[in-house]
Amino acid sequence: MSTNAGLQSNGSSFASDINADPNRIKFAYWVPNVSGGLVISKIPQRTNWDLPSNVQYAQTAEKVGFEYALSQIRFMAGYGAESQHEPVTFSQALLHQTKTLKLIVALLPGPWNPAVAAKQIASIDNYTDGRVAVNVVSGWFKAEFTSIGQWWLDHGERYRRSREFIACLKGIWTQDKFSFHGDFYQFHDYNLQPKPLKWEGRPHPEIFQGGNSIDARENAATVSDYYFMNGNTLEGFQTQIADVKARAARENRADQVKFALNAFVISRPTEAEAIQVLQEIQGKADKEAVLAFSNQVHNNAGAATADKTGMWADSKFEDLVQYNDGFKTKLIGTPQQIADRILLLKSLGVSILLTAFLHYDEEIEKFGNEVLPLVRKLEAEGRGRDVEFEIKLTGDVYRSRGNKTT
Question: What is the CATH number of the domain that holds 312?
């Protein structure tokens, strides 16, 4: 036990040193608390979804400098994820086995009531010295709702319910007598005790929320702390970030909304090797599962919005092999190429990079040893601040084909 404690202490010291810059980009990883890994493919994956494996991943991640981990929410099997551990309890288990890592817990309005969620998260926050956050998802899997007797709302109403849900969480966590009279939730002088921990700059646990639609962007602008984005083109990232910032400014929240981005990382000694791995993942895709997933997300997310701007609206088959368009983020290549691209993303406004890997057993540690220190070295040299320089250096890889320079 003392040896393990020493290793954790040394790891914590290293992570503290490598993350000393207050203006750094931060790193997170998807928690594989559902089976099937992070790609819908029949390629062998050295990634396990059991708790002991995830404890090892979490301890390794915080040792090499990751600051966040995001647990997934699934209520039923589908699309390669035949088994799922519940995210609140799973995240709490990981928090008790780590020292510095923050867990972002996925919550789904409908199955979760904000009163129960607020109580759970406030308690866990107290147990873990303020290391819990939430990711409020609005849902895209219709059967996940109807099979447990929940109403299936149309796209705009799901996001409107999520906005009320987040508003209630914030009110419950910060007010002694919280009242709310919405279309989905009602509270009357509710007083939660104990409340979550708070300190300067952190009035309550951080609230993440994602989506690509106008509904999602409005939620980010009005109530969220972080806005999660899927992979995109350079122009897509610029448009999306600028739009959310403009909407937040109209709500007098221009400095209160930050941006996080999903990415699937394939780091190899040469770019050709990394691309070969990508091609193998896509070539061995579980075609039936990917097509079923595509049908769900195109009908209930991307194409469900009036302007067709929802998540996955423009995603092709090969994109959907990774759930959140992670291949589009282009972190596929050598450590140097990946570091350069991360600094471009930082210059565009990305504060947290949410990573996923094919082989969690070794690739979390590999990223932490090879890529993360390189990013920190380049940040110390001033990289990631000058957006025009970063676009000139790396931007072509992200441009849509019609705008790509030659």
Answer: 3.20.20.30
